[in-house]
Amino acid sequence: MSIRFIATIVALGLGLSGCASLTPQQCMNGNWAEIGARDGAAGRGADYINAHRDACSELGIVPDPAAWLAGRQAGLARYCTPENAYINGRNGSRLEPVCTPAQRISMSRAYDWGLQYFALQTDINEANAEIARIRAVILNELSHPDLTPEEADRLASLEFRIRRLQSDIRMDELRQRRYAQLPF
Hints:
The protein is an all-alpha fold. The chain has 8 helices and no strands. 73% of the residues lie in helices and 0% in strands.
Protein backbone atom coordinates (compact mmCIF):
# COMPACT_ATOMS: atom_id res chain seq x y z
CA MET A 1 0.00 0.00 0.00
CA SER A 2 1.19 3.47 -0.80
CA ILE A 3 1.54 6.21 1.79
CA ARG A 4 -0.98 8.29 -0.16
CA PHE A 5 -3.56 5.45 0.04
CA ILE A 6 -3.04 5.06 3.80
CA ALA A 7 -3.28 8.82 4.32
CA THR A 8 -6.55 8.86 2.37
CA ILE A 9 -8.00 6.06 4.49
CA VAL A 10 -6.96 7.84 7.70
CA ALA A 11 -8.43 11.14 6.47
CA LEU A 12 -11.71 9.44 5.55
CA GLY A 13 -11.83 7.78 8.95
CA LEU A 14 -11.26 11.07 10.72
CA GLY A 15 -13.89 12.74 8.58
CA LEU A 16 -16.45 10.08 9.39
CA SER A 17 -15.70 10.18 13.09
CA GLY A 18 -16.69 13.86 13.06
CA CYS A 19 -20.29 12.70 12.64
CA ALA A 20 -20.14 10.32 15.62
CA SER A 21 -21.99 11.14 18.82
CA LEU A 22 -18.80 10.68 20.87
CA THR A 23 -15.10 10.97 20.24
CA PRO A 24 -12.92 7.89 20.71
CA GLN A 25 -11.54 9.55 23.86
CA GLN A 26 -15.03 9.96 25.32
CA CYS A 27 -15.78 6.31 24.55
CA MET A 28 -12.57 5.20 26.26
CA ASN A 29 -13.16 7.41 29.33
CA GLY A 30 -16.60 5.83 29.61
CA ASN A 31 -18.13 8.26 32.09
CA TRP A 32 -21.61 7.18 31.05
CA ALA A 33 -23.42 9.07 33.80
CA GLU A 34 -21.78 12.33 32.68
CA ILE A 35 -22.48 11.56 29.02
CA GLY A 36 -26.11 10.81 29.90
CA ALA A 37 -26.41 14.04 31.90
CA ARG A 38 -25.10 16.02 28.94
CA ASP A 39 -27.52 14.24 26.60
CA GLY A 40 -30.46 14.84 28.95
CA ALA A 41 -29.58 18.52 29.29
CA ALA A 42 -29.57 18.70 25.47
CA GLY A 43 -33.04 17.13 25.32
CA ARG A 44 -31.94 13.92 23.65
CA GLY A 45 -34.30 10.96 23.65
CA ALA A 46 -33.79 7.64 25.40
CA ASP A 47 -32.82 6.00 22.11
CA TYR A 48 -29.80 8.31 21.72
CA ILE A 49 -27.69 5.75 23.55
CA ASN A 50 -27.79 3.77 20.28
CA ALA A 51 -25.77 6.53 18.61
CA HIS A 52 -23.17 6.17 21.36
CA ARG A 53 -23.22 2.39 20.95
CA ASP A 54 -22.49 2.87 17.23
CA ALA A 55 -19.79 5.47 17.88
CA CYS A 56 -17.96 3.27 20.38
CA SER A 57 -18.45 -0.11 18.70
CA GLU A 58 -15.32 0.15 16.56
CA LEU A 59 -13.31 0.46 19.77
CA GLY A 60 -15.07 -2.54 21.29
CA ILE A 61 -16.63 -0.37 23.99
CA VAL A 62 -20.23 -0.85 25.07
CA PRO A 63 -22.11 1.92 26.90
CA ASP A 64 -23.38 1.35 30.43
CA PRO A 65 -27.14 1.85 29.92
CA ALA A 66 -28.00 2.13 33.62
CA ALA A 67 -25.39 4.83 34.28
CA TRP A 68 -26.32 6.65 31.07
CA LEU A 69 -30.06 6.60 31.88
CA ALA A 70 -29.45 7.85 35.42
CA GLY A 71 -27.29 10.66 34.05
CA ARG A 72 -29.85 11.45 31.35
CA GLN A 73 -32.58 11.79 34.01
CA ALA A 74 -30.41 14.28 35.88
CA GLY A 75 -29.84 16.18 32.64
CA LEU A 76 -33.55 16.19 31.82
CA ALA A 77 -34.15 17.94 35.13
CA ARG A 78 -32.14 20.85 33.67
CA TYR A 79 -33.73 20.61 30.22
CA CYS A 80 -37.38 20.41 31.29
CA THR A 81 -37.62 23.85 32.90
CA PRO A 82 -39.45 27.01 31.90
CA GLU A 83 -36.13 28.85 31.79
CA ASN A 84 -34.68 26.41 29.27
CA ALA A 85 -37.91 26.42 27.26
CA TYR A 86 -37.66 30.23 27.05
CA ILE A 87 -34.05 30.01 25.84
CA ASN A 88 -35.03 27.47 23.18
CA GLY A 89 -37.89 29.67 22.01
CA ARG A 90 -35.73 32.79 22.00
CA ASN A 91 -33.19 30.96 19.83
CA GLY A 92 -35.90 29.69 17.50
CA SER A 93 -35.14 26.10 18.47
CA ARG A 94 -37.82 23.53 18.93
CA LEU A 95 -38.40 21.71 22.18
CA GLU A 96 -37.66 18.02 22.11
CA PRO A 97 -40.53 15.79 23.28
CA VAL A 98 -38.64 14.36 26.25
CA CYS A 99 -40.39 16.04 29.16
CA THR A 100 -43.38 14.80 31.10
CA PRO A 101 -46.81 16.22 30.22
CA ALA A 102 -46.83 18.26 33.45
CA GLN A 103 -43.40 19.69 32.63
CA ARG A 104 -44.48 20.51 29.07
CA ILE A 105 -47.47 22.44 30.41
CA SER A 106 -45.24 24.50 32.71
CA MET A 107 -42.78 25.06 29.86
CA SER A 108 -45.26 26.04 27.16
CA ARG A 109 -45.87 29.66 28.21
CA ALA A 110 -42.14 30.27 28.61
CA TYR A 111 -41.43 28.73 25.21
CA ASP A 112 -44.10 30.86 23.54
CA TRP A 113 -42.67 33.95 25.26
CA GLY A 114 -39.24 33.14 23.85
CA LEU A 115 -40.71 32.51 20.39
CA GLN A 116 -42.26 35.99 20.46
CA TYR A 117 -38.80 37.46 21.08
CA PHE A 118 -37.36 35.34 18.26
CA ALA A 119 -40.11 36.35 15.80
CA LEU A 120 -39.55 40.04 16.51
CA GLN A 121 -35.78 39.60 16.11
CA THR A 122 -36.39 37.86 12.78
CA ASP A 123 -38.53 40.79 11.64
CA ILE A 124 -35.84 43.26 12.73
CA ASN A 125 -33.15 41.31 10.88
CA GLU A 126 -35.25 41.12 7.72
CA ALA A 127 -35.99 44.85 7.85
CA ASN A 128 -32.29 45.66 8.29
CA ALA A 129 -31.45 43.40 5.34
CA GLU A 130 -34.08 45.14 3.23
CA ILE A 131 -32.63 48.54 4.18
CA ALA A 132 -29.18 47.31 3.13
CA ARG A 133 -30.57 46.11 -0.23
CA ILE A 134 -32.32 49.43 -0.83
CA ARG A 135 -29.19 51.39 0.05
CA ALA A 136 -27.20 49.26 -2.39
CA VAL A 137 -29.72 50.06 -5.14
CA ILE A 138 -29.49 53.76 -4.30
CA LEU A 139 -25.69 53.64 -4.30
CA ASN A 140 -25.37 51.62 -7.50
CA GLU A 141 -28.20 53.06 -9.55
CA LEU A 142 -29.32 56.41 -8.15
CA SER A 143 -26.26 58.17 -6.78
CA HIS A 144 -25.34 60.16 -9.90
CA PRO A 145 -26.08 63.91 -10.04
CA ASP A 146 -28.10 63.86 -13.28
CA LEU A 147 -31.20 61.97 -12.16
CA THR A 148 -34.10 61.80 -14.56
CA PRO A 149 -37.54 62.67 -13.13
CA GLU A 150 -38.36 58.95 -12.99
CA GLU A 151 -35.10 58.22 -11.14
CA ALA A 152 -35.77 61.08 -8.72
CA ASP A 153 -39.22 59.65 -8.00
CA ARG A 154 -37.74 56.19 -7.50
CA LEU A 155 -35.08 57.62 -5.15
CA ALA A 156 -37.74 59.43 -3.11
CA SER A 157 -39.82 56.25 -2.95
CA LEU A 158 -36.84 54.18 -1.81
CA GLU A 159 -35.85 56.75 0.82
CA PHE A 160 -39.45 56.73 2.10
CA ARG A 161 -39.31 52.91 2.25
CA ILE A 162 -36.11 53.12 4.33
CA ARG A 163 -37.74 55.53 6.78
CA ARG A 164 -40.78 53.26 7.05
CA LEU A 165 -38.58 50.20 7.70
CA GLN A 166 -36.59 52.12 10.32
CA SER A 167 -39.84 53.05 12.04
CA ASP A 168 -40.95 49.40 11.95
CA ILE A 169 -37.63 48.38 13.47
CA ARG A 170 -38.01 50.86 16.33
CA MET A 171 -41.54 49.56 17.03
CA ASP A 172 -40.37 45.93 16.95
CA GLU A 173 -37.48 46.76 19.29
CA LEU A 174 -39.90 48.37 21.74
CA ARG A 175 -42.20 45.32 21.60
CA GLN A 176 -39.23 43.00 21.88
CA ARG A 177 -38.23 44.51 25.23
CA ARG A 178 -41.38 42.99 26.68
CA TYR A 179 -40.11 39.51 25.77
CA ALA A 180 -36.44 40.09 26.67
CA GLN A 181 -36.81 38.02 29.84
CA LEU A 182 -39.33 35.77 31.50
CA PRO A 183 -41.99 37.73 33.41
CA PHE A 184 -42.64 34.89 35.83
